[in-house]
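Memo to structure team: turn this sequence into C-alpha cells by end of day. - J.P.
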Amino acid sequence: ITAEGSGNANGIEATGNDKTNTATNTVNMNGAILATSTDAGTAAGVSAATYADNTVKTATSITASSNIGTAYGVDASNHSSNTVDMTGNLSASSTTYGEAYAVRSNDNSTNIVTGTKDIEVATAQGTVYGIDAEKDSSNTVDMTGNLSASSTSTTYGEAYAVRSNDNSKNTVTGTKDIKVTTVQGNAYGIDAVKDSTNEVNKDVTTAM
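Reply from structure team:
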C-alpha cells in the first residue's frame, strides 16, 4: 500500500463520528505500507480516529514520512484502536519540520503492534516519540530490534523512546538497544508522567 500526496497521506485510515457511527478496516496483506506527504500535511501508515478500529495482517514494514507536518507510523486517537501484525521495521520521520511518532495512542485509545523489528523516529526540527501513550491510553509492542529516536533540530526538539502520560501505559517486549539523541533539547529513554506506567523488557520475547 503506497499513499503519496502534497497534503495528507494515509496508508490505512479509519475515522468514525461517534460511538454509534463508527469506522472499521480489516486488511489482510503481505507487503509494505508507505505513506508520504511531500509538502505540508500529515503522514500516517495506519490511523484510527474517533471511535474507529483497524486490524492489519501482515505488514512487512510501515514507513510514514512528512515534509512539513506530523508523521505517525501507527496512530489511534479518541476512543480508537489498532491491531497490527508486522514482520519488518516501523518508522516515522519529518524531513523539514514536524513531530514524529512511531506508535501513538491518545484519548482512551489502544495500539497492539506485534512482530516489528526496528522502530525508528526522526525529525529535522521538532519533537519525536518512539512509543507514546497519552490520556487514558495504552500501547503494547512486541518487537525484536532496536528502538531509536532522534531530533537533529538546531533550535529545539526533544526526543523520547518510550513515553506515557496522564494515566496511560506502555508495555514493550523484546527491544534490543534503545538510543535517543538530540542537538538542542532533552532526551528521554523511558519516561512516565502523571499516574502513568512503562513496562519495558529488553531482549525478552515472551509476554509480560
